[in-house]
């Protein structure tokens, strides 16, 4: 192999290896606000690791589980929202969360179970 081709190949492999090491898994989130879910479904890339974050705002008792994903019932930390002020909102930095590293999972739909008090809700996690 000519010297120039060897240098190009080594450079390309090095670049590929470095970019492969620096990628981070996608992050998806669920927020239970005053007992209500902030979305109707969550989509994630199939066969890829991802991070699922979950939090509760003004919901003192909330738990998340997903048996098919091996996620046991886990209490969600509650953040009490401050009294509203004109032009101000609760920033993401103020919300206490819990994180789950999940996947890779095959394509399909996986039910996430959210329990708030005595109410049970289901949220589909769709891997495409």
* Spans of at least 5 consecutive residues with low confidence: 1-20
Distance between the termini: 41 Å
DSSP, total strands: 10
- Would you list the SSEs in sequence order as H and E? HEEEEEEEEEE
- Tally the helices: 1
Mean pLDDT: 82
- Profile the largest sheet: 5 strands, mixed
Radius of gyration: 20 Å
Portion in beta strands: 35-45%
The 3D shape can be described as globular
Class per helix and strand makeup: alpha/beta
Helix content: 10-25%
Quick summary of this structure?
Helices cover 16% and strands 43% of the residues. The protein is an alpha/beta fold and 128 residues long.
Q: What do you see in this structure?
A:
This protein has 128 residues and is of the alpha/beta class. It contains one helix and ten strands. It has one helix at 3-22; strands spanning 27-33, 36-37, 42-44, 50-57, 62-66, 71-75, 78-79, 98-102, 108-116, 119-127. The strands form two sheets. Strands 1, 2, 4, 7 and 8 form a five-stranded mixed beta sheet that branches. Strand 5 (62-66) and strand 6 (71-75) form a beta hairpin. The chain is globular. The termini are far apart. Residues 1-20 have low confidence and may be disordered.
List the helices and strands and how they pair.
Blueprint: H1 3-22, E1 27-33, E2 36-37, E3 42-44, E4 50-57, E5 62-66, E6 71-75, E7 78-79, E8 98-102, E9 108-116, E10 119-127
Parallel strand pairs: 1-4, 3-10, 4-7
Antiparallel strand pairs: 1-2, 4-8, 5-6, 5-9, 9-10
């Amino acid at each position: 192999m000519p010297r120039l081709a060897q240098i190009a190949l080594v450079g390309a492999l090095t670049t590929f290896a470095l970019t492969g090491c620096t990628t981070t898994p996608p992050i998806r989130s669920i927020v239970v606000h005053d007992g209500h879910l902030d979305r109707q479904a969550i989509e994630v890339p199939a066969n890829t690791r991802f991070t699922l974050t979950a939090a509760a705002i003004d919901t003192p008792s909330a738990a998340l589980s997903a048996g098919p994903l091996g996620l046991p019932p886990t209490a969600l930390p509650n953040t009490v929202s401050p009294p509203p002020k004109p032009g101000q909102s609760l920033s993401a930095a103020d919300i206490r969360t819990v994180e789950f590293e999940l996947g890779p999972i095959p394509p399909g739909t996986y039910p996430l179970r959210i329990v708030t008090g005595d109410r049970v809700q289901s949220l589909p996690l769709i891997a495409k």
